[in-house]
Amino acid sequence: MVSYRSGPFVRCAALAALVVLFSPMSTGAQVLYGSVVGQVNDTSGAAVPRVTVTITNPDTGLTRTAVSSDTGAYSFTNVLAGRYDVRVSLQGFKEFVKTGVPVSANEVSRVDATLELGTLSDTVTVASELQLLQTDKADTHTEIKSVAIEQLPLPQNRNYQSLINLVPGATPAATQNSEVDTPGRALTTNVNGMDRNNNGTKTDGATNLNIWLPHHTMIVSPAETIDSVNISTSNFDAEQGMAGGAAITVITKSGTNEFKGSGFAFYNNEKLNAKPYFATEKGPASAHIDGATLGGPIERNRLFFFGAWEGQYQTTPQQFFYNVPPAALRSGDFSRAFNEDGTLQIIYDPFTGNPDGTGRQPFPGNIIPQSRIDAIARQIQQLYPLPNQAGSTAGGNVGGAAIARNFAKSLPRKFDRNNYDLKLNWNPSSATQVWGKYSRMGANVKALQPYLGYDDRGNGDTTVNMYTFGTTWTFNPTTVMDATYAIARMTHETVAGDATFGNFGLDTLHIPGTNGGRNFSADARYAGMPTISPGGLWSGGFDWIGNIDGWDPVQRDERTYALSTNVTKVEGAHELRFGYSLNRLWMNHWQPELGNGPRGLFETASNATALNGGAQTANGYNGYASFLLGLVAHGGTSVQYELMTTREWQHGLYARDRWQMTNKLTVDLGLRYEYYPLM
User: Fold this and answer.
1) Which of 132, 336, 360, 450 is the most exposed place for a label (fewest CB within 10 A)?
2) CATH code of the domain occupying 141-318+412-496+552-591+643-653
3) Structure confidence by residue, pLDDT tens digits, 40-68
């Protein structure tokens, strides 16, 4: 059976006439690259044909040359991001030079030149200004440059995605899943009312997708490594696909002919914090983000590198409060088990009276005989810690000792993450550019809820490796081809703190069927403590023992493979662009999502030691008495969890003609086909 994503799986921007007014020429709607276009006229306003135009990146020495058309128009497509000097030269005219022209991914930089009569030895130099309007592209997009990313306030994790708040039509960016699941702390947003799963992000051409949680990216590039972020929100170019909400392109920094680097550190600890209101002390706390970058030449004008490291380490004190039974109750003595109103809660013998619970007799002295206490219950209650604070008597007391919030323990929440990036750029000639990048994130998070019976918070370990390779070939001034190939892999494992206990339910408590039973007990994923709740999980009373998180452990392996290639051909007034993109999604996911969990779950019922129709309502005292008697109201375990898998091919084909009908009217004609059968 084949299922389809909501909406048609074939999207056609069929002959979409996207009109750009008052633009002499429109070209180069790149995604990874930018474009430089312009019109060459003389001082009378007449077009000057066959003019030599050269663009040069002074930081890398990269130079490209083109010749203006019969109408005086010129264009450079597939231009790597950076700042360029534009030179316009023709015998009999002064040379026109414009310096520092910014070029960004998915942006068109326009440089129109007016040539004055003179000699080539005379030069007219103009310094570039910021281009506030995009008159050569029809899509609606926002560009966020590195200066803004580095200087604007960022949230705790210094995530550049928070700046999507600056984009019109975007809801405030927010985290959606736990630190254990998403240690990269990716943010999500809705754009123009579309579902957040419909946003698509590419980082240096690599598909950046968390397959299991598709509203998140697999990896978040550190702020210091980003050159620009381009966010298209509507009127997409035919080249931009696999996105219904926002098409987000992240371009990271590259090395230049000059060595440049940076270092940074953000630090905070408990000395700067206030003590939590209910805590007895501040507890150890620290949060710091450290990092460094360095880029420069390996071989001037040909080979460059850029490397970066960022580490984030955070320890947050947390205090937890529990309801644990006082010592008297553990021996079966309920003779002083008083309710909040001062009445003694009567414990009835379930083996007296009628089957429906009527006619039961109280235990003599409200004390359960030692011979009646279940052997397994004795073992389990040894895991209960004794009260270590006064607590609250709001729910009752045992001889004056509180039964609510009478045990507290402090365990820090720890978050450690390291990001590494290395990028190489090679320009063997002015016609060929090659680059490659490696990114890695390693994170360990100790943030699972600590339950009674063990103190270890468990671990969430995540590793991401991303490899990206790209190249551009300029066959001639009017024909350019580019290609990008990327591989990304994320492995994730969440293991609870009780995993080191082995098959505790089966081998220590000797409860048949727990920890996968005999058929699955050899599988380490079933190890740990079963959940045991005196009185039911949600009925109040005393807290449960063991691991209540039936969703762990988690093992996930995600891989994405992305290939894209494009060809651009300029023919007179037409810029033709064709391309193909391929995504391969691969995932193995093992997780006990439903049921009683792999370790098992047992609940006792408070009404088993209460009198049906009596004056008192069963409460937590009755639940604990039922637990001591070994009376289980519900018990079960779940086994043979299936490995969830995804294997999918996604394809995209497009053709686009950007046609300059007149000097003030440009029309985009595009057709795009996409196929994505599952995700």
Assistant:
1) 132
2) 2.40.170.20
3) 888 888 888 888 899 999 989 888 988 88
